[in-house]
Amino acid sequence: MDYRSSEPGSGGAGGTAAPGGTGGTGTAVERPSGPRAEDVLPDTATAAVKIVIVGGFGVGKTTLVGAVSEIRPLTTEETMTQAGVGVDDVAGVERKTSTTVAMDFGRISINEELVLYLFGTPGQERFWFLWRGLFEGALGAVVLVDTRRLEVSFDVIGRLEERRVPFVVAVNAFPNAPVHPVEEIRSALDLPPHVPIVECDARLRRSSRDVLMTLMRYLRGLALAADSPAS
User: Fold this and answer.
1) Residue 116 in 3-state DSSP?
2) pTM (2 decimals)?
3) Angle 205-227/61-68 helices, nearest 10 degrees?
4) Is there a contact between 18 and 28 (Cβ–Cβ < 8 Å)?
């Protein structure tokens, strides 16, 4: 989101109305002052990439977006109610009290020129109809997995493969979660050898940023391979 056109004093949504601008009442009306300084897209940014963060219910998507975003993240979390009983699979995450019902959104600058827009998807199958819009224009994806519940990632990965969206797998380090060798995880998820699998702690900014960097390197490698002349 580029807020530069709506900064205070630019004639857009920002700034303050002059006295008398309310139909002759003579009362000054304060308009929204625009985005916070830290939310404004840097002038040096020349390229933006859309990335989706996907995974099963309760694997840490909202946590990752919130941890790595350089702006205040947008979340659509709602309190879980009785309506989800018998519908949402909460096995292994019984203590979870809220859930994303639309999307999470954040932004991170990889360098002075490249900006990533992050869209976290809802994990429950009943919200998957929203994926079509969230995946529109996405260059790649991060699949968060929980080794205690690898099975919740099967359908997610299948949907990415159907849409031919390149992705990396990030194994979120939950307390007391079993630790498996990477190749065992690859076999369990039925992933080809070229798909990167990395470990992460979605609560930590640096760890989450490393996952995104892994995805960007992977996407760059795919682009270079596609541009190379056939041998």
Assistant:
1) strand
2) 0.70
3) 90
4) yes
